[in-house]
Amino acid sequence: xxxxxxxxxxxxxxxxxxxxxxxxxxxxxxxxxxxxxxxxxxxxxxxxxxxxxxxxxxxxxxxxxxxxxxxxxxxxxxxxxxxxxxxxxxxxxxxxxxxxxxxxxxxxxxxxxxxxxxxxxxxxxxxxxxxxxxxxxxxxxxxxxxxxxxxxxxxxxxxxxxxxxxxxxxxxxxxxxxxxxxxxxxxxxxxxxxxxxxxxxxxxxx
Length: 206
Fold this sequence. Notes:
Layout: E1 5-12, E2 21-29, H1 36-42, H2 54-66, E3 70-77, H3 79-85, H4 87-102, H5 105-109, E4 113-117, H6 126-129, E5 131-135, H7 143-166, H8 172-175, H9 181-190
Parallel strand pairs: 1-4, 4-5
Antiparallel strand pairs: 1-2, 2-3
């Protein structure tokens, strides 16, 4: 009998002023959970990414990479795509790309359960082909969605740290593109970079 999967999908970077919007997709095999003793030994606590420290999120990703029964992928869309499509459509595009990168014929054959965090939807006819549900506050209820938020957050944070090499004026390693007071002061001093979302920064015109 083929193993069955539950897939969780979540995004990070929706409210950022700069950088990509990233979506994680994680496939967990049903019946293969997490050993509480192992999680305690590794000091891993499964929560939504926003409730974990950067060190805890990285530790989770390292652990997931060692599990051959867990699969995950991340897809990102650029600030230009967010400006062009609007943030909701851009998030759904990234969600669909992450899902399609994750699933292979083996997983699809098992008709996996697919859960997306509230506000996310898959484009195309996936909703007709599979059991797909968008769950309000899914990142608080469903482990696969919690893990998806973690892998997406780690991926996006690393991208923003690398962006600092090209755009050192904005302090991306500190705020990862979100609208902190420091970031806004930098924007008023230096203006927008190529990776800022123009549609999110119109307040600078006031």
